[in-house]
Sequence to fold (1944 residues):
Amino acid sequence: MLGVCYYPEQWDEARWTTDARRMRELGISFVRIGEFAWSRIEPARDQFNFGWLDRAMDVLHAAGLKIVLGTPTATPPKWLVDECPDILPYDEQGRVRGFGSRRHYTMSSQAWWRESARIVTAIAQRYGDHPGLVGWQTDNEYGCHDTTLSWGPEDLRAFQDWLRRRYQSCDQLNEAWGAVFWSMEVADFAEVTLPNLTVTEANPAHRMDFWRFHSDQVAAYDLMQCDIIRAHSPGRWITHNFMGFVSDFDHFAVADHLDLASWDSYPIGFVEKFPFSEAERNRWAETSHPDIAPWHHDLYRGVGRGRFWVMEQQPGPVNWAAWNPVPKPGMVRLWTWEAMAHGAEVVSYFRWRQAPFAQEQYHAGLNLPGADALSPGGLEAGRVAQEIAQLGQLPAVQQAPVAIVFDYASYWATMVQPQGCDFRYEELAFRWYEALRRRGLDVDVVRPGAPLGGYAAVIVPTMIHVTDAAQAALESAKGVVLIGPRAGSRTRSFAIPHDLPPGPLHDLTQNRVIEVASLRPGLTQTVSGGVEGHATRWRDHATTTAQVLARFEDGGPALTQHGQALHLLCWPDEALLGSVMDLVCHTAGLHTMPLPEHIRLRRRGDLWFFTNYGPEAWSLPESFECVLGNHQMPAQSVTVAKSLSEKV
Amino acid sequence: MLGVCYYPEQWDEARWTTDARRMRELGISFVRIGEFAWSRIEPARDQFNFGWLDRAMDVLHAAGLKIVLGTPTATPPKWLVDECPDILPYDEQGRVRGFGSRRHYTMSSQAWWRESARIVTAIAQRYGDHPGLVGWQTDNEYGCHDTTLSWGPEDLRAFQDWLRRRYQSCDQLNEAWGAVFWSMEVADFAEVTLPNLTVTEANPAHRMDFWRFHSDQVAAYDLMQCDIIRAHSPGRWITHNFMGFVSDFDHFAVADHLDLASWDSYPIGFVEKFPFSEAERNRWAETSHPDIAPWHHDLYRGVGRGRFWVMEQQPGPVNWAAWNPVPKPGMVRLWTWEAMAHGAEVVSYFRWRQAPFAQEQYHAGLNLPGADALSPGGLEAGRVAQEIAQLGQLPAVQQAPVAIVFDYASYWATMVQPQGCDFRYEELAFRWYEALRRRGLDVDVVRPGAPLGGYAAVIVPTMIHVTDAAQAALESAKGVVLIGPRAGSRTRSFAIPHDLPPGPLHDLTQNRVIEVASLRPGLTQTVSGGVEGHATRWRDHATTTAQVLARFEDGGPALTQHGQALHLLCWPDEALLGSVMDLVCHTAGLHTMPLPEHIRLRRRGDLWFFTNYGPEAWSLPESFECVLGNHQMPAQSVTVAKSLSEKV
Amino acid sequence: MLGVCYYPEQWDEARWTTDARRMRELGISFVRIGEFAWSRIEPARDQFNFGWLDRAMDVLHAAGLKIVLGTPTATPPKWLVDECPDILPYDEQGRVRGFGSRRHYTMSSQAWWRESARIVTAIAQRYGDHPGLVGWQTDNEYGCHDTTLSWGPEDLRAFQDWLRRRYQSCDQLNEAWGAVFWSMEVADFAEVTLPNLTVTEANPAHRMDFWRFHSDQVAAYDLMQCDIIRAHSPGRWITHNFMGFVSDFDHFAVADHLDLASWDSYPIGFVEKFPFSEAERNRWAETSHPDIAPWHHDLYRGVGRGRFWVMEQQPGPVNWAAWNPVPKPGMVRLWTWEAMAHGAEVVSYFRWRQAPFAQEQYHAGLNLPGADALSPGGLEAGRVAQEIAQLGQLPAVQQAPVAIVFDYASYWATMVQPQGCDFRYEELAFRWYEALRRRGLDVDVVRPGAPLGGYAAVIVPTMIHVTDAAQAALESAKGVVLIGPRAGSRTRSFAIPHDLPPGPLHDLTQNRVIEVASLRPGLTQTVSGGVEGHATRWRDHATTTAQVLARFEDGGPALTQHGQALHLLCWPDEALLGSVMDLVCHTAGLHTMPLPEHIRLRRRGDLWFFTNYGPEAWSLPESFECVLGNHQMPAQSVTVAKSLSEKV
Fold:
């Protein structure tokens, strides 16, 4: 199903009816509204102006559109900021981040919670049972513009409270943080400082707790909004629109109280954001890398416990990357089908019409700037709508054969303490995912501690701190478990485990890491034996009592096996990563289908969705029967097919 | 004629007479003084110490030098800053920019206007009718060190006032800015914030108005000084010394009330400042790129409505670039003749003697540091002085066959909203100018709205917002008009035109831009047809009813023609740019003279000035008769010649 | 002799006895303790808790270890910072540098001096005559984390006081600084500002004095600690642990009142810190460049007037560089012997046991994290201990045949005024040292003004300001004196000398510099004649009456000779540098032994220490008899040998 993001407050009321009708004509079923409209809903304190929104919702509903209503907390209006300046966030340099764009609040502010509750209550009461309303979106893009962490006085106060609850006594905090080192001990929680603007790096345990504190706040803040909405809007689901390559808070924890996950898919902009090589960036500039959107689909399907939307789908060029090319013809359609293939319930385009004003005036919409005329992306959306109708109800999404365990806390830990300045957890996870997908495998992304019983292979790119639950899940996995470098290298208190890394994973791996090396670009170490390639960026120097499948040149273990557990003791280059993944698949008995760099495959029930990211054509094997598209796939095309053989 | 910048306050009074005599002996006619001397003129409030300056002016006058007196407002003294700390500017990071160098004031400060008026009045009253005085320079290098924009409380107050005058009501401001987007609406002008330190980018309309406000302030502040001077100094002209590659304010608007323009020419330092490639920077490190000084000569001849000086000419190595090489022998002479060729009335060297102390002690002068001995540059200046005398009165400067329309507001607009981070307006304009000059053409640089009737070709690299006057001038142009990418892409309110770009230029071009692509380095699009090459950095995707002269690979129009109007829908690489310029010249019936990369030509009356930037020699065609120099031009040389044929 | 750094406060008291015993078993004689333990010694004001430290010292002493006790002033505890917030330093951006790591104090704070004196007195009184105590370390790593300069209100006040003492009157200050330039004159010392956050660069004379002021403060602060210690701890020596590649204060001046110098040797981390090329960084990533540690050994032997320790020796990977590889096997041993070869009295490893918590948890120790088991580095240390015992007392260190004059003030001067942004004094000095060492020469590093009589060659890479003492020493040198570019280019007041550079060195060199060129990367100038190669980065354009040994292409002098004085008028590339050094050695009659890039040699008495930094093997000439190791030296090995011929 298709949706669209719409801002009735930005257009003359006279245009609403036409807009709604044209949405339906294009094949759109859902419309998201309201998430930035606070200044129009409440232009001054307690002076609510619901009239326009009442009418807008009625118009949309009357046209047959199902409405998703956003709470407007991402954009507190000026009068509120002036009344309560302590809602403003601070950056890491200690500067107030002021009014004039969006997300100018810190969740540490008590005033902000009070005001958020007030506006959410008002809107939920007003529209909770509107007949057109099917669901809610809380706020908008938590963490966008680096807003998860804030470094102001309100944050310090709230952080001290959080520490007080967590550690009970300063002795316990001092002990946990190793504060005796450099005389950093405190005698009262009120003595704790923010971990910024220190002379040299702050204690990583201090920084890690600061990150956890903020992540906890996001979950608690979102739950506060959900509780209010649920009290006033029975029968409607709630989601939040998460982002791509934003890992500053634990999305699993936030989604625990959401009904479904959603995310905002800007495949091209992310090519500039993710640390690709320049060659890769040029290669994928106008189509996006073929694993960017899929990675997030699989991640958010996991975050949403099986249910997810694409709440915002890029419909053409955007405005916010360093460079913003026009997507190749066919890509808007391809991305839409890619989302469907991975289980998206709805793909909702951002936005209905390009705004000719303000910050995003260079952001394409389904319609040309300010106009009632479809853009190139709008035309592609119309085609997809027809194809969806043709294809009918898609089969259910089944569990994948492979799981990647994704751990937000490992992202924070490696940001807090990179040790080698290119050890980037998101990059590691993405590259391992890419290697699996190049082998034609479907992948689930799961949280640490999730049950792993049904997977033939479980991939743990790394997991810095291994909780009891995560340890138990890994130990009870049935399939092959591949553990990566740095795993188990820190306790909950951000200390090296007393029995050395991988700590809780020692029984599984039979390894002990005694030294670690971060390797500068250009410095590699050769790995040979059962797998071949090079270590780059990182190497764990370990002693082992496991079987050594491959060694470094100096004889140290590079890949070990103990039972079903493989342990890779380095960051692998592309060759070594491929070699390891081949071994994993072979060991796990997984059937693979090697794909060229521009082709991907995702199954949904008995349907095989092939996507060609171009620029070369590609042909499906003859053993498939096409349901949509053809065997001969031109660049930027999709083919949906059924396999004629039992297994391909 | 030659001049020199001199600082009597920096040298023992005993040396003044010798200095003045040696200036005259070298062939110098004009001397600029006084522009940094506030602390000596008024060492404490209202305690004026004019005696030394009286004597200095008398000495210079007695030696036969014509004096240009600068107002000292670029360097408010410490006692004044301590009395009125609110004159200090703020940087975009919100920090006060303190005392200790120069230009430490914001024009938004009311105290600063009051104090400026006070000191200018005192000096104008004292020296307005001094017999040696021929002209005035206001302040020094507006905008230098990024001082056009300031971000403090005084700036906010003055900006709010400016908005109040402009928009009358908040409704109009909210409407113009599209402030409904992200709930940025204000209910009172006092609610408007500075557009810095926001969470993500501020509204570009907000930022654009902030830039306009500051540009307006420069013009008003300068006019205030001019009004005072004119009241007390009848019969003297007024100028301001503008800079190279500084476009933060509208120089045309400032010069509207000046008698002539002047600029400070540091050809080598600008090689590091302008975004040349590293190869170009190495190529031109010791001579400067052959179009840097000419571009500014042509620009400031336009700014000065035909009259301009070089107020400061680099006489050797300077101190302020990342690297500061010694100019190749001959370059000081060459630059001086280059300025004359382009119509400079006076070339004034900075400075008479290298100061052995303070910030610019590594800045060469005509004399060695602290000494009464000519530097290598001083020797070259002496040679030029003799040559000027030999050559006698130069012919008048005539209108060039080609005009480039240069639009300061387009610089601000693309800085505010680059969309692709290498879309640099100054670079675009410079490259198009360079392409014309490589074809041996003389060029005028004119402001938007200037009459274009007399030009065979009019070049508009881009013009983001097209005013009514600019539209009218372009529509009434007689020659070929070449319009570049992004033209007409924004209204006065910084919105996309309701009928899509190029908005007011639609009738001229017959094009509509429906999408734009910014292209990262490495990403290009091939153009072929009537012109050949590649688009880089930017492409406008357009629909057209004009004749399509060249297309992109996907069939989209790249270069269109409608009547005399050519529209290039991309940023051209060097090959495409050359191809387009060849077509323009051919269409316009312009006779070109292709020149190697190190040779340039500029005509003045019947004199043809050839400059060889080296390192290779070059020979003039035989059809010229040399007036100065020879047919065989060695590296770093000048030849002035007359054409023996009607047209070459 | 070997030592180790130990933190009893970080471990259960129960482990101390075992630790002490195992240290002795490993062959360790000295233990440094206490330097970060303020919060445990004085957990609240005047509540001293000496018990644990009493017991720790007794345990160590009982085990036969000699104790070096550090004063804990590098880590003021939180209660003190809260009581006296004005002890906190400010960064150049004007931000307070807060509590939470270390070195969070400015020496400008009067409160800080009072508190420092109080804690040092308390500790010196308590332990001054402890039978296990042999020496003291003041504070820890002055200048670490850019803490020499601070930019807060306390710094301004103290700086004004320093200026008042230095200049007596504002007239003298204004004159010295050339403050008339840009109206920067002050009428009261209280008007002087900090030289940061100015609109453009502050006056370099102002900045230079600010740097001198801070350097003076370091010496005075350290002397204050020394005076207290000496009053209470008779018969014990005092040192400070200096750093590598930190030149922000005059180390010679600090060491004037120390009994011996010491420094902290992290050879691998420095590979990332020093401006090596990427190729060099990769080449030496796992061994360090073969001149990094030796350079500092020679420097600190000079700073310590012949006596120095390595107070902290890297024993494995560290945590603080951009990348932190594991040293190649053998390097910990090699570095230890390298230090001994250069005269180190003791090599003390940092640290006994890797801390599993806090900022340095990735910093290796002699024992594994938290464990009682030797790390790979610990095993190498044990081997060295045995070898030292075998070899017995080493011969005394004799004066080297070559001296490099190292001038901290030249570092400040070129930082204050680089003129070419890659003119880095430390790099220049290091490269010239490297060139000498590649020729098998032993080198002393001496301060300006030190007697130079005994040296066959004296190398002055540059010396921006030449004091009378430095001039006298150079003029009375007996050997060849090689002077580098920019020498003598500034007076004490940071002005160009009235008789032009090299000012006081004119008589020695017979040159006058009339212009200088800084050359961007890619821009070089060819030198030919008696030496061959290229100038890069810098060229002095000079007139000369000396003999010209080599010239630039334009005929200007590149290398001149006047008597024994050679003057190189540029920054030489590697070829030119080698050519010049060959000429110096030849002229000075020095016997050289050309060594491959990975081999170095240092003599101590009749012992020749050869070090092989790998990865290739190398063979000693047959004319040596090996005392330790073999003629055939594998990678990462040491051979100590005696020469069988009179001279090799």
Remarks:
- The first helix of chain C runs from residue 16 to 26.
- The CA atoms of residues 35 and 72 of chain C lie 4 Å apart.
- The longest strand of chain C covers residues 533-544.
- Chain C touches chain A through 62 residues (CB under 8 Å).
